[in-house]
Design goal:
The chain has helices at about 1-15, 40-60, 90-105, 125-135; strands at about 25-30, 35-40, 65-75, 80-85, 110-115, 115-120. The chain is of the alpha+beta class and about 150 residues long. A four-stranded antiparallel beta sheet has the order 1-2-4-3. Strand 3 and strand 4 form a beta hairpin.
């Protein structure tokens, strides 16, 4: 979330200095886990979102964690879009991952802890096989793996 905050701040700086945004209500702000984009038209929101995605990519944030909402009309000629930042795995996906691991017959155990799936096993090879299985089964899901054994 720190990198997301920095990305939003850098995007706000770029919006303030860019010529094509001068004199427009173009802005971006972060509250909790929601990024709000405000602009004159949907085209301007798309430009702001492109700048944001570039800044987040440079900050090593996977942009697949962003869920862009619909464009909403505000007062006057302003429009806004709310982008939710996902953090962790939803319970439904965690159960699906746990089921894949149990069905794979690997000698590992999967447990859901808060917004994470913890996989434990005696052998490192089994853990790496479980990681490979999850990457293969869910390629569109942005996952990160931590190894606490090293």
């Amino acid at each position: 979330m720190v990198n997301v905050k920095h990305g939003v701040e850098n995007t706000a700086k770029e919006i303030a200095t860019r010529f094509d945004f001068k004199g427009t209500p173009a802005s971006i702000e972060l509250k909790d886990k929601e990024i709000t984009l405000i602009g004159n038209a949907e085209f301007q929101l798309t430009q702001i979102e492109d700048v944001l995605r570039n800044k987040l990519t440079k900050a090593a944030v996977d942009v697949r964690f962003l869920d862009a909402g619909d464009v909403q009309k505000m007062g006057g000629d302003k429009v806004k879009r709310v982008i939710k930042v996902r953090n962790g795995i939803e319970t439904e996906m965690a159960k699906k991952i746990q089921r894949f691991i149990k069905d794979s017959k690997l000698k590992v155990q999967a447990a859901i802890q808060e917004e994470k799936v913890r996989v434990t096993g005696a052998k490192r090879d089994d853990l790496q096989a479980a990681m490979a299985l999850i990457k293969k089964e869910m390629p569109d899901l942005p996952l990160s793996f931590d190894n606490f054994r090293d």
